[in-house]
Amino acid sequence: MKILGIDTSNYTTSAALFDTSDGTVRQVKKLLPVKKGELGLRQSDAVFHHTKQLPEIVRSLFEDVGEVPVAVGVSVRPRNMSGSYMPCFLCGEGLADSIGVVNGIPVYKTSHQVGHILAALYSAGRFDLVKESFIAFHVSGGTTDCLLAEPDEKSIVKVTELGMSLDLKAGQVIDRVGLMLGLDFPCGKMLEKLAGKSGRKFKIKPVLKGGSCCLSGVENKCRKMLDEGESPEDTAMFCLQYVYSAVREMTRHALESRGTMPVVFAGGVMSDRIIRDRLEIEFESCFAEPEFSCDNAAGTAVFAALKGNFI
Q: 12, 45, 64, 231: which has the fewest Cβ within 10 Å?
């Protein structure tokens, strides 16, 4: 049986098929186009591009499939909390509801954040964690969240916020520094490549308030480095090492307050090898592979599979 997943975030149009017979996921996704030099899109533009890209994405996904899905999973909000809303998710929700009605199949709705967490569990081969408590990080352009994840019949994974960024999010910092260095948005992959040419190791003491971090000063520090003649490579490395240091201290705080438990890192920023490699050494943790770390629909397909008891 095939289960369709849809995700229409502020970065990517994505659809995925989860095959219950062998547990594989096939996904097709496409970044939303952003003009050079700009930091992301207005919601009206994101809705327009999703509307254009969704038929192309779904057509490509179902090429040679020849099988109607038995269920649909879709992200309908950024997070499972009151007031969490972005118009771009209406695109995916509308398509999912239409597919469900036409084919007489159930539609299971979740949040973009839960989708990220489930995609990470799928990629790491740790579905067992949906039956126990663990620490989950969702680190992206819109969130830098440290969460307590617990089993829940309604939402599969119930998340409670333990810490967050109190100002800029990690992905925002990376994109701002990337644009400062002349890179194209989204800047994560190119910033990582640039930083890979640096051999510098920086002593960084991130700003934390309880279990939350502050990242707004990173952009100014990177600007100062460039003004003082530091290389773009070293500036990129400083930015990524700062993000790593902040996430590390948030993780330590969460484990000290909640006790030893597994840690799962999800979100596009966590696909960065410079950050990931350091965290893997320090903590017993699970990471998604890059294709399941950045925005994707795999997690929404997995959510539908779990909610519908297909696996």
A: 64
What DSSP character marks residue 129? G
Report the side by side order of strands in the sheet with 71-77: 25-31, 12-19, 2-8, 71-77, 107-111
Question: Which residue type, as a one-letter code, is found at position 80?
Answer: N
Residues 194 and 302 in one domain: no
For 152, residues 6+ apart whose C-beta sits below 8 A from its C-beta are: 158
**Single pTM value for the model:** 0.94
Residues 112 and 195 in one domain: no
Angle between helices 188-195 and 273-282 (to 10 degrees): 70
Question: What's the pLDDT tens digit per position in 111-154?
Answer: 999 999 999 999 999 999 999 999 999 999 989 999 999 999 99
- C-beta atoms surrounding 300 within 10 Å: 35
- Tell me how far the alpha carbon of residue 248 is from its chain's centroid: 18
**Does 117 share its domain with 186?**
no
Question: What's 65's DSSP letter?
Answer: T
Q: How many domains does the chain have?
A: 2
Tokens 């509308």 belong to: 94
